[in-house]
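<given_protein>
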Amino acid sequence: MIAILGTGKMGEALLSGLVRAGLRPSKIMVTARREERAEALRETYGVRVVSNAEAAKAAETIILAVKPQDMGSLLAEIAPYVPADRLVISVAAGITTAFVESRLGEAVPVVRVMSNTPVLVDEAMSVISPGAHAAECHLERTESLLKPVGKVLRIPESQQDAATALSGSGPAYFFYLVEAMVDAGILLGMPRAAALDMVTQSIVGAAIMLRDSGEHPVILREAVTSPGGTTIAAIAELERHKVRAAFLDAIEAARDRSRQLASG
C-alpha cells in the first residue's frame, strides 16, 4: 500500500503517473486538506481518501508531498504512527532527510526526492538521495515507483538544492523561453498559433537530438551556427544582453531559495 500525503499539484502528478504505470487505485491512499479536493481525487482516480494518521498507519510506503512550510506540522501529526519498517519518501523542496528523521523519532528509512512536472507526461527528471537509515532496498523501491514516469538519478543529498534549482524548476525556465520566443514571432508578424507550433517543435526536436546524439550542446549549437549567418547574429545579441550570466544568476537564486526553505 502506498500513501501520498498532501495531494497538491506534485502529489497529484505522482498519483496520476503511478496509476498510468499500472498500479491499482486500490493500492493507493491519498490525503487532502479540503473536502472538495478529496472528492475530486476520489472521482478522478478511484483512490481512497483518508486522514494523515490512517495513511501513516496502513501504508508500507509513505510519500510526503506537502508544501515545505507544512512539513513540520505533518510530521508531528503522523510521527506516532510510523514504525521503523516504513519507507518515507519526501518530495518537498528544501526539506532534508535529517529534518524528517529527527521528527519521526524511530530509525525510519527516508529517501529525499526532487521530481518535476513532466511526470504528467511520463518524462520526469527525478533525483533521489538516501537518509541515514535508508538502505539499497529502499532506494530500489523508490526507483521502481519513479522509473515508469521518467528518468531517475541518484545524487548525494548535498546536491539536492542544486537539483531543485536545475531540474525541479527547470521546466519553468523552458516555458519562460518559449513565451519569449513566441512573442518575438508575433513581433515579426507571425500568428500566435503558428509561432507556438514552430517554437514548440523546435524545442522538442532539439531536446531529442541532445538526449539521443550524445553530443555536447556546444557541438550541436555550432552545427546550426554558420559564419556570418542568422544564428550567430542572434547569439551575439543574447551575449550582449548577458543572457548566459542571467541564467547562472537565476539558477543560483533558486538554489539559495531552496536552502532558505530548508531552514524555515
Residues 192-213 form the longest helix (22 residues). The CA atoms of residues 193 and 222 lie 29 Å apart. Residues 2-162 form a domain with the Rossmann fold fold (CATH 3.40.50.720). The beta strands are 2-5, 28-31, 48-49, 61-64, 87-90, 110-114, 124-130, 150-154.
